[in-house]
Amino acid sequence: MVSPCRHWYQQGQDVLPVAPYSGNVATGSNLGEYLRVRRERLVPDDVGLPAGPRRRVPGLRREEVALLAGISVEYYLRLEQGRDQHPSDQVLDSIARALQLDADAETYLRELARPPRTEHRKQSRPERISAGVQSLIDSWPSTPALVHGRYLTTLAANSMAVALSPFFAPGVNSLRAAFLEPEMREFYLDWDEMTAKAVAYLRSVVGADVDDPRLVELVGELSLRSERFRTLWARQDARQKTSGLTRMLHPQVGELDLHYEKLALPGAPGQMLITYHAEQGSPSHERLELLAHLVSR
What we know:
By secondary structure, this protein is of the alpha+beta class. The protein contains 13 helices and five strands. It has helices at residues 30-40, 62-69, 73-80, 89-98, 103-113, 131-138, 159-164, 174-180, 182-187, 191-206, 213-225, 227-235, 283-296, and strands at residues 145-148, 154-157, 243-250, 254-264, 272-277. The chain has a five-stranded antiparallel β-sheet. α2 crosses α3 (73-80). The model is unreliable at 1-28 (pLDDT under 50).
């Protein structure tokens, strides 16, 4: 469905609907695919190995990863090919070190090695927020705040968040908007960095549960319609970035350098409260106050 927010910067043309994506997000062994992608992103110099003669494959060879991890080449080959999907914790520790995984990437590796049992997956229910959380964010007259669900759909937002961007309104999927709405490329001055973080965050949140129908639909649609998303999703980055700085260009108040914080809501699995604020006394703070004044009129 075409977003009702398209007129924000300029009136655009309707986007033709895309057929729903069918099939799994990943094929074969998700663990094996992740190992292959991470292996191919390293070069011998990264791990202190000589480059040697001309290399026919990108990144490290399987035997090099096996050497660094202290396991047999045959066993590592079975892992990448999906013939052994239950490595021990000790093996996972060794592979994580060999592939130079950070804490978030290592957590994702372990989730792939211990995937959820889909036959016991609970029936999906609509995500809702509590009245208390809605009342809380509504009480912040100058702080943009919203609540994301597990797949980055906005479940609630205060008036400042919607004034900051109509794509922050309840019911809008922020990931879909970021990649498919042309206005968002103008709004986010750090669009490349922001989209990379968003995709890595989604992968870290869903973990090994990549066959969830809602995720399949979202990833399928974005893969069909956005080359940028396809590239980022294929990188298999997983990172739970819960705070940072983002740069925005608001059509009314101008450039904004805003700090964001993401806080998990207790008792609401997958729900994240997101707030934006500017440094006291900065030009961005003055512009955010101006936006609050415009909202209150």
